[in-house]
Specification:
The longest helix has 16 residues. About 45% of the residues lie in helices and about 15% in strands. It has a 7-stranded mixed β-sheet with strand order 3-4-2-5-1-6-7, sandwiched between helices. It contains 13 helices and 7 strands.
C-alpha cells in the first residue's frame, strides 16, 4: 500500500517514513497509521485497496470524465450496485452463452442511453473483462465527451475505409476498458451502418474483446439502431424514468425482434 500511495503522490518519501515508524511502534496497518497522522483520507485508502484488488475507480477531480460516470467516481453507491446487478444478469443471460456484442438502445433523445452504456462498460471492465465501448451514434455522439477523448477519427472512418483499429482508444484509468469513438460525422450514417463492412468489423471486434457494447442512436431517429442491433445479435432496451412510454418500448422491442436482434431485457434509468 505504501508504494501505491507514493506512486499516486498521496505520500512523500519523508512522510512514508513517519508512517512506517508509527506502524512499527503501534503494530497497526500502514493505512491506519497514515490516517492517524492525518496524511491520507479514508477515500485515499479505499482507492488504493481497490487497485490492490484490481478494482480501479477514481476520485472526483482526478480525471476530466463526465460527472455522470458514477461507476468511475462512486463505485459503492446504490446506483452502481444496480449497475452491477444488470451486469450479472447480462453475464448469465447473454455473455455466458458465448456472445460477445450487445447493443444498448433507447426510444428517444435524452433517455440516458449513452450515460448508461458508458457506466455499464466501466463496471464490465472492473470485473476484469476486456471491454470495448463503441459509439455507434453517428448522428449525435457523446462518448468522446464522457471520456474526454481526443482525436477525430472513429467508427465512421473505419466503415468508410479511411482508418484502422488504431482509432480505438484505451482508457488508462481502467486497464480493461477501451472506447471506439464515433469519428467523423457522416452524411449517410444509416447506409454506413448497413454495409457488410460493419458486420465484418463486429466479427473482428468480438475476436479481440470479451465484451463489445454499442451505444446506438435513439430509435425515434431512424433505423440506425436496428442495423446495429441486428449486427450485434442482441439488444438491451433503456427507458427513462417518468419519461419513456411503455407502448414505445414495446413497439421498439417488436421491431428489434423483426430485424433479427434478440431483446435481452430492459432497464429503467434516472440519469
Amino acid at each position: 500500500m505504501g508504494a501505491m500511495l507514493l506512486d499516486s503522490g498521496k505520500l512523500s518519501a519523508e512522510n512514508a517514513e513517519r508512517v512506517l515508524r508509527m506502524q512499527k511502534e503501534l503494530g497497526i496497518r500502514f493505512g491506519e497509521a497514515a490516517q492517524r497522522l492525518g496524511l491520507v483520507t479514508e477515500a485515499d485508502i479505499q482507492q488504493v485497496l481497490a487497485r490492490q484488488f484490481e478494482y480501479p475507480y477514481l476520485q472526483r477531480g482526478e480525471a476530466n470524465f463526465s460527472p455522470n460516470l458514477v461507476a468511475a467516481f462512486e463505485p459503492f453507491s446504490p446506483q452502481v450496485e444496480a449497475l452491477r446487478a444488470v451486469r450479472s444478469q447480462l453475464m448469465l443471460r447473454w455473455f455466458a452463452r458465448g456472445r460477445r456484442a450487445l447493443a444498448i438502445a433507447g426510444v428517444g433523445e435524452g433517455d440516458g442511453v449513452s450515460q448508461f452504456a458508458a457506466n455499464l462498460a466501466v463496471v464490465f471492465s472492473q470485473l476484469g473483462e476486456q471491454t470495448l465501448l463503441v459509439d455507434a451514434n453517428l448522428r449525435h455522439p457523446c462518448q468522446h465527451e464522457i471520456f474526454d477523448l481526443k482525436g477525430r477519427q472513429g467508427l465512421s472512418d473505419l466503415l468508410a475505409g479511411r482508418a484502422d483499429l488504431d482509432v480505438v482508444q484505451r482508457i488508462p484509468s481502467f486497464v480493461d476498458l477501451s472506447v471506439l469513438p464515433a469519428g467523423t460525422l457522416p452524411p449517410n450514417p444509416q447506409e454506413l451502418l448497413a454495409r457488410a463492412s460493419f458486420r465484418a468489423l463486429n466479427t473482428q471486434l468480438e475476436s479481440r474483446y470479451d465484451v463489445v457494447l454499442y451505444d446506438v442512436p435513439p430509435f425515434s431517429k431512424g433505423v440506425d439502431a436496428l442495423a446495429v442491433a441486428s449486427r450485434a445479435g442482441g439488444v438491451l432496451l433503456v427507458a427513462r424514468k417518468d419519461r419513456t412510454r411503455i407502448s414505445s418500448v414495446s413497439r421498439m422491442a417488436e421491431q428489434m425482434a423483426q430485424a433479427g436482434a434478440e431483446v435481452i431485457g430492459s432497464v429503467v434509468v434516472d440519469f
